[in-house]
Amino acid sequence: MKNHTSFKIGGPADIMVFPQDLQDLENLLHVADEEKVSLFILGKGTNILVKDGGIRGIVVNLQRFDKIMIESEDENGETIVFAEAGVNLSRFLNFAVSHGLAGLEFAAGIPGSVGGAIVMNAGSFDGEIKDAIKQIRMMDLSGNVIEIDREDIRFGYRTARLPKGIILGGSFVLHKDSNKKIKDKMIALIGRRKEKQPIGVPSAGSVFKNPATGFAGALIESVGLKGYRIGDAELSKKHANFIVNKGRAVAKDVISLIEIIKEKVKKEKGVALKLEIKIVGKD
Ligand SMILES: Cc1cc2nc3c(=O)[nH]c(=O)nc-3n(C[C@H](O)[C@H](O)[C@H](O)COP(=O)(O)OP(=O)(O)OC[C@H]3O[C@@H](n4cnc5c(N)ncnc54)[C@H](O)[C@@H]3O)c2cc1C
To answer: Stretch 252-257: mean pLDDT, rounded?
Structure first.
């Protein structure tokens, strides 16, 4: 799995499948049910830490669900665009810029897929998926395709409460604006990110959610852990809420580092940090 995660960490999966249409997915769900094999749905692997023992069962890689379609456009410039789950978020943003469609700028610089972004309600200080989504299309565990309106989904801070199943894609409400204005906003957001975050180094983004009282990074820095390292897992010197893989880090190192951070921040600051990344797989 280290070849399928932005952390470049993770043991092997038993099986990885690359379904190409709804029939493939439906068959897969039936086989998994009959054979009692578990499924793990993978986006682009930018928010997960896969343990060193890897993932038992089947990893479902949705990279072939990669279409973007304009569904409707009204006289006021409101445009509904459907993006399949495996679409790279950055490709979706490029599509929006080239069609002069505003509404996704907040996501500039967030890696991952459309499906992963929906599950995580991905966002920045400037907005979240919940602000742009209109409807989600899913396949439930029986193989039925269902559509869920935004109003019926409870979004939270990096969470979306959804039925069990596979997200197939989402319809987004965008609106016509000048390409230049949209692009300039995205460039500014990416620039801001580059200044503050270790971009281009293997990581899974922010490890912890920001607590109600402030920033997780500032808390971690205040207990003196910025730059702390176990093996090749290091608390970034640039941003204390990022753990970076300096080369050959393994999940065990990252998990030990996470435990130390949680313990020290709790003891010295009285704050119980909660994980934003998802730890999956077996030791
Ligand atoms: C450098 C860096 C910066 C980042 N900055 C941000 C940021 O500013 N804001 C932010 O919100 N996040 C940020 N992240 C985290 C990450 O990019 C987002 O959470 C992203 O939306 C995850 O998408 P993914 O496709 O990689 O999901 P994955 O990591 O592959 O999966 C995440 C979860 O979603 C589930 N999942 C994925 N696709 C589907 C699907 N189709 N159906 C059902 N379940 C699915 C997976 O099973 C898993 O539980 C950053 C990460 C990095 C590496």
So the answer is: 98
